[in-house]
């Protein structure tokens, strides 16, 4: 068994664009021109997002291979005899896109430790409001952990994006991260994007164990064709997202004009969080069907674009509209049904949240004491340590994962029962098809 590997050379600092001058728009023709140009730019940014120069690999060197003790079945010239009596399938792999902003270095590292498993892939992103030194510290911290170097599955984006909570820059960033992860590894099965306000409610051994029994083409996405108030506030308004063309944070620009809803396809709304299959991500990024690009152009100047983009593509595609589960496995605190955004989670929500059965929760604040409780009671994770799993061979305590073995070995804990119960309910014959891309 092995627990260290040579450190790669230091990363070079990421580069940034210079700040353009502010724009003053008075002529309506100039306004429409800018809107059209920004739409085209969003598409060009999407098409060019898979450039290998846009990210830095922070846990491996280009010519090294993962530790054979972690992945014995991947090694060449070696025969591995599997237990023929075992009924457990091979665990899947999840590609995580973890994102934060200025001052979120500690939070994104904590999220990485809480979601870490050697089988997965991780891409870390601190947006453009964070300093170069923060990104460099993040990369150096990733390089310093022996397990990250051994598994070679943690990477840091060097050329950051600017992501606004509204507008289409969120779509651009998500597709950018997904395209990089497609290049980094050919074997992951699902894609999950998490921000520093999100946190897992189960261990990765629990999640991978449950997901290993599911078809790998399933997509877990909240969706509804009922538009309601969103039509006038989120879909018809025309905006220009400065995250697509400015290097500093500015106010979102709203046009006075409104537009009609599309008739070539049906709009679906949902949540910005989802668990998406690799097949669907490939369909959106490199597929030959033009639907993802057509929908991208429509949402490029729309508020709340990310929460509508993936549900609309899934439910308008004959290839994928039968693969959708109308639940994203995320717990969010909507204290009233009319709330547009989830409320911060408080200690009063803890029991409901844990017994909900979701894999993740959102709404955590900086240094939230709830996270310490989840680490202690659910994840069994020590401060500054990754979550122990079946691959950890060390003794009990803080050094449990300082010695490692086969990453295919999973040891689900008690938390797997709630997720299993939720999954069984979602996939039962009475609810699976009846909540799938329904026109309301």
Element layout with pairings:
Layout lengths: L27 H20 L46 E7 L4 H11 L5 E6 L5 H13 L1 H6 L2 E3 L12 H16 L5 E6 L2 E3 L3 H8 L7 E6 L5 H6 L1 E4 L12 E6 L10 E9 H9 L4 H9 L5 H12 L7 E2 L4 E2 L18 H7 L3 E3 L6 H11 L36 H12 L13
Parallel strand pairs: 1-2, 1-4, 2-3, 6-10, 11-12
Antiparallel strand pairs: 4-9, 5-12, 6-9, 7-8
Subcellular location: Membrane
Protein name: Core-2/I-branching beta-1,6-N-acetylglucosaminyltransferase family protein
Organism: Prunus dulcis (Almond)
Description:
- This protein is α/β, with parallel strands linked by helices and 440 residues long.
- Helix content is 32%, strand content 13%.
- The strands form three sheets. The chain has a seven-stranded mixed beta sheet, with helices on both faces. A three-stranded mixed beta sheet has the order 5-12-11. Strands 7-8 form a two-stranded antiparallel sheet.
- Helix 11 links the parallel strand 11 and strand 12.
- The longest helix is centred in the first third of the chain and has 20 residues.
- The chain starts with 27 loop residues before the first helix and ends in a 13-residue tail after the last helix.
- The N terminus is likely disordered.
Our estimate of the beta-strand percent is: 5-15%
| Secondary structure tally, helices | 13
Largest sheet: 7 strands, mixed
Over the alpha carbons, how many angstroms does the gyration radius reach? 22 Å
The chain-level mean pLDDT equals 82
């Amino acid at each position: 068994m092995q627990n260290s590997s040579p450190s790669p050379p230091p990363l070079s600092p990421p580069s940034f664009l210079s700040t353009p001058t502010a724009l003053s728009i008075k002529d309506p023709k100039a306004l429409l021109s800018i809107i059209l140009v920004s739409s085209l730019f969003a598409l060009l940014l999407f098409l060019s997002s898979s450039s290998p120069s846009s990210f830095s690999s922070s846990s491996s060197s280009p010519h090294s291979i993962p530790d054979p003790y972690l992945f014995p079945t991947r090694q060449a010239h070696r025969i591995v005899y599997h237990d023929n009596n075992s009924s457990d399938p091979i665990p899947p792999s999840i590609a995580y896109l973890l994102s934060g902003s200025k001052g979120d270095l500690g939070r994104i590292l904590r999220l990485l430790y809480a979601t870490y498993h050697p089988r997965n892939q991780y891409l870390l992103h601190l947006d453009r409001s964070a300093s170069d030194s923060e990104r460099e510290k993040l990369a150096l911290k990733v390089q310093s952990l022996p397990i990250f170097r051994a598994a070679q599955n943690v990477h840091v984006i060097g050329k950051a994006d600017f992501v606004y909570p509204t507008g289409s820059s969120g779509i651009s960033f998500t597709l950018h991260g997904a395209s990089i992860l497609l290049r980094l590894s050919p074997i992951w099965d699902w894609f999950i994007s998490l921000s520093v306000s999100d946190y897992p409610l189960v261990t990765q051994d629990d999640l991978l164990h449950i997901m290993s029994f599911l078809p790998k083409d399933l997509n877990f996405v909240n969706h509804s064709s009922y538009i309601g108030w969103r039509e006038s506030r989120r879909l018809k308004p025309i905006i220009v997202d400065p995250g697509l063309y400015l290097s500093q944070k500015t106010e979102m620009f709203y046009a006075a004009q409104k537009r009609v809803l599309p008739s070539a396809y049906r709009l679906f709304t949902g949540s910005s969080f989802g668990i998406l299959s690799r097949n669907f991500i490939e369909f959106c990024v490199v597929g030959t069907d033009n639907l993802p690009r057509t929908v991208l152009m429509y949402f490029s100047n729309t508020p709340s674009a990310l929460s509508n983009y993936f549900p609309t593509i899934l439910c308008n595609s004959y290839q994928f509209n039968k693969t959708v589960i109308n639940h994203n496995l995320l717990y969010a605190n909507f204290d009233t049904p009319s709330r547009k955004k989830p409320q911060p989670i408080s200690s009063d929500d803890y029991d409901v949240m844990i017994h909900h059965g979701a894999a993740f929760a959102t709404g955590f604040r900086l240094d939230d004491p709830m996270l310490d409780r989840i680490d202690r009671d659910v994840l069994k994770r020590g401060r500054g340590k990754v979550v122990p799993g079946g691959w950890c061979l060390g003794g009990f305590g803080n050094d449990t994962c300082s010695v490692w073995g086969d990453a295919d070995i999973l040891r689900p804990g008690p938390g797997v029962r709630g997720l299993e119960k939720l999954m069984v309910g979602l996939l039962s014959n009475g609810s699976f098809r009846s909540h799938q891309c329904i026109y309301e």
